[in-house]
């Protein structure tokens, strides 16, 4: 359990992915058979290539719209909507990019249409079947929480929804001597002589994992029984690591200094942080500028026509932000608010802020206002992925009230980040603390693969207007 839950796949997850991959391959194969009935027969080699390319492209697009989000909170209608969007995206990518670059693998428009329709129907039905029959139950872990006080109640609060517990079942909470009074319901508590009978109880109830969540551990835990459980294959995990694995965040309110020192991760790969990271970011920025310059040009024109022509208000907006190691820099954005938006001083932006202009409403919704930050990336002040940079005025206050807040400045700020994927729109100090939990998780697990996953899934943030 040292590895992150977000980096592991349960048996159910593997079966689900294999099933969906099989359906996509079958959809492509059936579409090829349909094509062969009225066109030139496609060779076996070309068929295999197309089946592989189609399946890989669809699964990549599915990842980008959140269909492989472990905690996706969507009903069947919402899932079907995302499946259709996935097929539209994959069709566009295959028809106008992949098959244009590799024309030798192109079959026909009929093939692509049939494959996409069959895939959309079969995947939607497959996901409905998995949801109806709860496929995750085949590998769901049985968990016992040692503790029923203040720390244990955090698990109860944060994992109260079914989707939060899709991979495990909490058998109950064992009160431990020294626990503070908390809100764990009496019927969720297990009366157990844990000092003498913990091992027996764990074996009899087939417990897979013990979570240490008591408020006072010194001389309170049955070390001998825990050791026996460990030797029998029962996983024993701290509450901090449990929350990190299951939620993709680090509970800053539970952190203690020794955990930071001894915890895996939180080390900086200097090559990734400097030279290699900068080169990759510059290449991505140049590529994105080549695709988005028409959008940026139209946006600048619309802002100018709305109020810039009459008032000479600027199209762009520069604002001081805090970067890596606390160094200040000016972030560049398209202006989305009125020019007197901060006449009363620095303010948090809210979801339905009346300071936002008409054009600003749309460019903020689809993140178009962030595109000029590509020049911040080229200057090396930002990366594509990282914690969003905050204003110095807010940083000073947040650092006073939120423990470990300044640790988010240990990496370069980004255009998008883990917190933007995992947390809805937030504009308060409380939201900042919640986002910090995700930022610290990102800093701890930072890697090229995680950055790529975040970049791909940012499509979902833009499409469905999630966290900012």
From TrEMBL:
Task: Tell me which domain of life the UniProt entry assigns to the organism this sequence originates from.
Answer: Bacteria
Q: Does the keyword Ribonucleoprotein apply?
A: no
Residue ranges of every copy of the Bacterial sugar transferase domain listed in the record = 279-463
Instruction: Give the membrane topology, semicolon-separated if more than one.
Output: Multi-pass membrane protein
Task: Output the Gene3D superfamilies linked to this UniProt entry.
Answer: NAD(P)-binding Rossmann-like Domain (3.40.50.720)
Transmembrane ranges?
15-34, 46-67, 79-102, 108-130, 278-305
Q: Where in the cell is it found?
A: Membrane
What keywords are annotated for this sequence in UniProt? Membrane, Transferase, Transmembrane, Transmembrane helix
- Main localization category: membrane
One matching Pfam family:
Bac_transf
Entry keyword Lipoprotein:
no
Q: Which InterPro entries match?
A: Bact_transf, EPS_sugar_tfrase, Sugar_tfrase_EpsB_2
**What is stated as this protein's family in its record?**
Belongs to the bacterial sugar transferase family.
NCBIfam families recorded: EPS_sugtrans, EpsB_2
Name of this protein? TIGR03013 family PEP-CTERM/XrtA system glycosyltransferase
Q: Which organism is it from?
A: Rheinheimera baltica
């Amino acid at each position: 359990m040292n590895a992150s839950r977000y980096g592991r796949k349960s048996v159910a997850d593997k079966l689900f992915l294999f099933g969906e991959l099989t359906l996509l391959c079958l959809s492509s194969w059936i579409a090829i058979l349909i094509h062969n009935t009225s066109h030139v027969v496609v060779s076996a080699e070309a068929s295999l290539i197309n089946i592989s390319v189609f399946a890989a492209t669809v699964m990549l697009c599915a990842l980008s719209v959140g269909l492989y989000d472990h905690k996706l909170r969507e009903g069947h209608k919402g899932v079907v909507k995302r499946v259709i969007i996935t097929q539209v995206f994959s069709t566009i990518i295959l028809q106008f990019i992949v098959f244009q670059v590799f024309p030798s693998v192109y079959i026909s428009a009929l093939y692509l249409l049939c494959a996409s329709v069959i895939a959309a129907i079969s995947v939607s039905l497959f996901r409905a079947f998995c949801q109806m029959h709860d496929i995750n139950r085949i590998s769901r872990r049985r968990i016992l929480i040692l503790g029923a006080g203040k720390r244990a109640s955090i698990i109860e609060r944060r994992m109260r929804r079914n989707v939060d517990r899709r991979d495990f079942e909490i058998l109950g909470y064992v009160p431990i001597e020294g626990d503070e009074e908390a809100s764990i319901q009496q019927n969720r508590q297990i009366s157990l002589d844990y000092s003498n009978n913990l091992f027996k109880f764990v074996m009899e109830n087939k417990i897979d994992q013990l979570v240490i969540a008591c408020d006072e551990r010194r001389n309170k835990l049955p070390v001998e029984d825990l050791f026996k459980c460990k030797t029998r294959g029962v996983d024993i995990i701290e509450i901090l690591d449990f929350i990190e694995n299951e939620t993709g965040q680090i509970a800053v309110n539970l952190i203690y200094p020794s955990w930071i020192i001894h915890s895996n991760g939180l080390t900086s790969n200097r090559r990734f942080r400097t030279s290699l990271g900068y080169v990759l970011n510059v290449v991505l920025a140049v590529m994105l500028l080549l695709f988005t310059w028409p959008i940026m040009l139209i946006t600048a024109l619309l802002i100018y026509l709305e109020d810039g022509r009459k008032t000479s208000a600027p199209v762009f907006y520069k604002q001081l932000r805090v970067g890596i190691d606390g160094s200040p820099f000016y972030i560049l954005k398209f202006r989305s608010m009125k020019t007197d938006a901060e006449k009363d001083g620095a303010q948090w932006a809210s979801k339905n802020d009346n300071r936002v202009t008409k054009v600003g409403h749309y460019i903020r919704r689809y993140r178009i206002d962030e595109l000029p930050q590509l020049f911040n990336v080229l200057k090396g002040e930002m990366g594509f992925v990282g914690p969003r940079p905050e204003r110095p005025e807010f940083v000073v206050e947040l650092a006073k009230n939120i423990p470990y807040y300044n640790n988010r400045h240990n990496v370069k700020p980004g255009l998008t980040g883990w917190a933007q994927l995992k947390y809805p729109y937030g504009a308060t100090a409380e939201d900042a603390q919640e986002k910090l939990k995700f930022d610290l998780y990102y800093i701890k697990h930072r890697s090229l693969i995680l950055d790529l996953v975040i970049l791909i899934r940012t499509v979902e943030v833009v499409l469905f207007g999630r966290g900012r």
